[in-house]
Each structure stands twice: as C-alpha cells, then as structure tokens.
Amino acid sequence: MLKRVLSGMQPTGRLHLGHYLGVLKNYVKLQSEYDCYFMAANWHSLTAFYTNYKEAHQYISPLISDWLAAGLDPEKSTIFVQSDVPFHTELSLLLSMYTPVSWLERNPTYKEKQENIDKDIDSYGFLGYPVLQAADIFLYKGELVPIGEDQLPHLELSREIARRFNHINKLEGKNAIIEPKPLLSENPKVSGTDGRKMSKSYGNTLSLSEDENDLRDKMKKMKTDTGRVKRTDVGNPDNCPVFTYYNYFLPARKMEIDSQCRSAGIGCIDCKNIISDQIVKETEPFRESRKKNIENPDLIKSILEAGAKKARKTAGETIANLKDSIGMNSDYRILI
C-alpha cells in the first residue's frame, strides 16, 4: 500500500513562478509515488483574511485550475476544499484541548508574522493555526508531509501534539494518531522582480497566469547586478536575481551566460530576453490548459465534489477512531 501524503495551499491570490517551481512541480511528482491528498486550505486563509474573506474565497477555483494545468490528476490524487470537510474544525477543537498555549506561543512563525504582516492578526485563530494544521494531517493519516527544511519546526509541533495525545489516549493499546514524518523537498527561494523572495505580499511576482507581454515587460524591469552600470562593465552573476532563473529554466546555458556576463560579452537586456523566451515557452502549455479549465467551471466543481466525498469518508473514519480513544463514542445515557 502506498504511503499517504497530505499537503495544501491557501487560496489567497494568483499563483506565481515561486509556487510553480517550489510546490506544484513537486506535487505532480508525488502523485505518482504516493497516495496524495491535496487541499485548498481556505480555513487557514481566514487567519489573515478574515476582514475580506470574500475576496480570498474567489481564488479557490483559479487555484484548482492552476493545479490541474500544472499536471495534477484527479485520477491519481484526492483534490478538495478544506471547508467542504467539516471534520477539520472538529478535530482542531479536539486537539486544542491537548495543546499547551506555551507550545503555540514559541512557534517561530507566530512572532515573525506578527512583526512583518501589516494586518491585525492578534487572534485566537492565528495563534492556534498550528493545531488546525495538525488536524489536517491527522485526519487523513498523513504519514508524510512534503516540506522544506525551513518548515521542519512547524511539523515538529504537529508531532508533539500527536505524541501528547497518544500518551494520554490509547486505542486498543495502540497509538491513536500516526506521527507524521517530513518528506524533505527542494523549495527554491525564487527571486522576485525586486530581488527579494518572490511573494504576493511584496508585490514582486511573475504570475503563472500572466499574459506573455506582461511577463516580458516585468522581466525587462527586473533588478539585475547593481554593480554593473554600463553595458561595457563586467557583471557578476552571483549578484544577479535574473541569472538565478537559469538554474530552473535553462541550466544548459548557465555556464555560457555566466562566462559572457563576467566578460561583458552579453548585456543585461540580452540576458533577460533569453531567459524570458524560455520561461514563456515552458509556461505556455500551462496558460493554455488553465484557460480551458477556467472556461469549464463544471469540471472544477465535479473534481472538488468527488474529492470532498472521498476526503469526508477518510476523515470521518479517523474522527470516529479518535473519539473512541477518548471515550466520547461510548453511550453517555447510562446512569451511574
């Protein structure tokens, strides 16, 4: 039997090249090797978008459309929306009874986002989002969670919750919850147009659904080696965000472009044009497929309905077992 994988993405905006390289390509690979459950994590979206959730909700169908365009296959993977499976919130509440507040307060992401996100996120929901995250994994008996090394502390918190629950409750002498393990994957930090990590919050993205002309225009304006002022100046590819794209889209020409840049044999405009051509070429099938998916909402609806039905069945069995382990399914009508 294939090991099970659980992963999800928040539908809060258009996906960009960072998502494509760091997540979607990995999803496509995993679905041929594992029993995969992929969810649009819209409950998690509420932690930062509770004041304008209607806007975030509209991105669910485009998100699924992007997944399909990237190569996710509903015949191989279970694709669903988190809120279509009520057991997520039920298990999150159950697990919150076993999770010490101190564990949540020491979560590095909690303080980091409070300091860097220009929104009021000082809420119980934001503090407790790791508990909901653990519930997501446990519901589907997720044995493996695809993450980068920087996300290991997040998964370790889920593992701690599992160990605490299992220590207190046993199901016929066995652990009630499978302790998930990391499935480490390369998660490249793709540079945005301003040289920082590509992020919707920075407004520096190259969207997967970008029109070809818009994509080329953004690439023309993208930051390069700041030490190279004139065309005749030698460049340093190590300091150029544009050059990093050769790692992902044109590795065969990486050494050639590196050498030409360092000798001023090629200018920044030419370098950008070459990599822009390759990005447009590689993402063109994605844009064509995405357009067909967007024009066929019934397809998205049927995939999500089938995925939710399967997910509810799996999650329902899990929540029933966990209730058994704590004695909640016993007959409470018996008089003592």
Question: Shape from CA axes?
Answer: elongated
CATH-defined fold name of the largest domain: Rossmann fold
Judging by the overall fold, what is the CATH architecture of the largest domain?
Answer: 3-Layer(aba) Sandwich
Read across the widest sheet, the strand sequence of neighbours is: 1-2-3
Give the DSSP E fraction (strand runs of 2 or more residues): 5-15%
Low-confidence stretches: none
Report, as a whole number of angstroms, the end-to-end distance.
45 Å
Describe this structure in words.
The protein is mostly helical and 336 residues long. The protein has two domains: 4-189 and 297-326, HUPs (Rossmann fold); 210-292, Tyrosyl-Transfer RNA Synthetase, CATH 1.10.240.10. Helices cover 53% and strands 9% of the residues. The strands form three sheets. Strands 1-2-3 form a three-stranded parallel beta sheet. A two-stranded parallel sheet has the order 4-7. A hairpin with a 2-residue loop joins strand 5 (170-171) and strand 6. Helix 5 (87-96) crosses helix 9. The mean pLDDT is 90.
Q: What labels would you give this structure?
A:
single chain; 336 residues; mainly alpha; Rossmann fold; two-stranded parallel sheet; 53% helix; 9% strand
Blueprint of the fold:
Layout: E1 4-9, H1 17-30, E2 35-40, H2 42-49, H3 53-57, H4 60-70, E3 77-81, H5 87-96, H6 101-105, H7 108-116, H8 124-127, H9 129-139, E4 144-147, H10 152-168, E5 170-171, E6 174-175, E7 181-184, H11 212-220, H12 241-249, H13 254-262, H14 268-294, H15 297-326
Helix pairs in contact: 4-14, 5-9, 5-15, 9-10, 11-14, 12-14
